[in-house]
């Protein structure tokens, strides 16, 4: 009995030490991500007046609308790259490097197959869409520009797909600090290239290609250096591609894909809806105010992204108590921080806009208020969503995001013609509250109690690759 007691005490001490170590890793990853994003925020804010004055209000609206639509093409990997984070982090928690190698090899194969099928369909669709009509543009020349921009960014995303798989796998290995440093370097170079393109008089298409291509090249360089260096023991070969692993990653990827699509259609599509229902000029003021209020949320998302692999690693080790404690603390702290940040921005919004871009854009009080509420609600909703994704609570994610989309889009479409651009922000607010935040709070105890049920089916049987598929979970 004494020996059992000593063993139990040692287990508790070890668990506490692992929890502290995991918390330190999360903190470093979050700090690196926030620092990188902080530079990106500053660079973005500085480039807005440069791009705005270079393109003019009308073409700047086209620029933001096309970038928002092109952001949908990040789904070109079918969500497989992001699904790797949970699987790799769990295998990492168990010290199973062979399983990690199989996951990466299978992820690369599945992503390549999905991308080869998806990208041609997108390019064909881009070619046949009447962008002059879709964006409610004043002339056909701007419509052709929009098509070129979207097609160019789509191709750049396609070239960067393999590197994205490696990047997400490294996040699962809790190497977010190194990933963030590469992202920082890519951001610095891409911002510089964008400014050079503007100074040389480049049009929207040149600017878009420069922006997207630099990011793709930087991620590719990072992936190659990792695989020939510290990651050479998990560098996959064709022998590591397993049909069972591909099926698991595709199944998990579909959930991530649905999440990304719902986010894009309910949030990123607001500028497209405004352009169609209120005209392209109305997009400019909305996009600039939205960017201002998005900055605190983006930084908080970086922290949530850093937690994603930590939750998976803790689940792989069986540290359920750390998961419960950390999630509740995160939900309270991030929601409170979002409320303080959005209130401060709302009170100082007019002054910030004047210092930032002069008198080119004037924000209505209704738009400012809607964006402030949107920022707080989104912080709480994202905390729940990232938690569900990290533990592969797949059914919960699908139901919540589908309901959010079904609520948000109709509300936005109904309100934009009547109230203008503020109506575009109200749709996601109502959707997030009704489908994610309120149900998440009401079901919090039940959700945390069910965490151990998602531990099964984590690892791959590398000796019997075709006979024992991995559970997709959830």
Tell me the fraction of residues in β-strands, as a range: under 5%
- Indicate the overall shape: globular
- How many separate structural domains? 1
Mean pLDDT: 79
- Number of DSSP strands? 0
CA gyration radius, whole angstroms:
23 Å
Binned, the helix content reads over 70%
Give the N-to-C terminal Cα separation.
38 Å
Listing every helix as H and every strand as E from the N terminus to the C terminus, the arrangement reads HHHHHHHHHHHHHHHH
How large is the count of helical segments?
16
**Content-based structural category:** mainly alpha
Largest sheet, in brief, is: none
Brief digest:
By secondary structure, this protein is mostly helical.
Structure description:
By secondary structure, the chain is mainly α. The chain has one domain. Helix content is 82%, strand content 0%. It is built from 16 helices and no strands. α2 runs antiparallel to α3 (97-128), α2 runs parallel beside α6 (161-172) and α11 (281-317) runs parallel beside α13. Mean pLDDT is 79; it is low at 1-17 and 457-474.
Characteristic terms for this protein:
globular; single chain; disordered C terminus; 16 helices; 474 residues; mainly alpha
Break the fold down into its secondary structure elements and pairings.
Layout: H1 2-70, H2 80-93, H3 97-128, H4 131-134, H5 140-159, H6 161-172, H7 176-199, H8 204-228, H9 243-268, H10 270-278, H11 281-317, H12 320-357, H13 365-390, H14 394-419, H15 422-442, H16 444-449
Helix pairs in contact: 1-5, 1-7, 1-11, 2-3, 2-6, 2-9, 2-11, 3-5, 3-6, 3-9, 5-8, 6-8, 7-8, 9-14, 10-11, 10-14, 11-12, 11-13, 12-13, 13-15, 14-15
